[in-house]
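Researcher: Let's continue the batch. This sequence belongs to DUF3331 domain-containing protein, and it's 145 residues. Same format as the previous ones, please.
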Amino acid sequence: MNALSEDNIVVRTLLNVLDPSTEQRDACAVNRYAALKKLRVSIPSPVVEDTYDAPSRPAHIVVEERLSSCTISVSWSDPCSGRYNAQIWRSGLARDAAVCALTGRAISRGDEVFRPRAHDFHVPSNRHQMILAATLDPHAEQAAA
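Model: Same format as before. Here are the structure tokens for DUF3331 domain-containing protein:
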């Protein structure tokens, strides 16, 4: 009879779920933190090849305001990724080659770009989109010409 109670894994599992030990609770808290930390790690972009077809540009993008030297406010509306009003985009360097969401110009690796800001609990669906910073700065455009 004693061996039967030790072998009953369903009962033991149910008891652990209903009344977990402190070690189990601590382990769950660590795993939850690790899962949230994974959200902050960027997902590698697909390999850009010569035959790569860039996704179609969104229906409507408006740069509403330049909030600081490194942030802008963007209104974004796209049938695939949804609608974002006053979405904050932050400047950075392009990790991969891409296409500017605002103008359609090519973005090379290392170019200064703006990307949507992601948080621990909210990762926007347009997080992989980029706007070339040179298209927003008229002085940089004149200097390049």
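Researcher: Any comment?
Model: The first strand starts at residue 60 and ends at 66.
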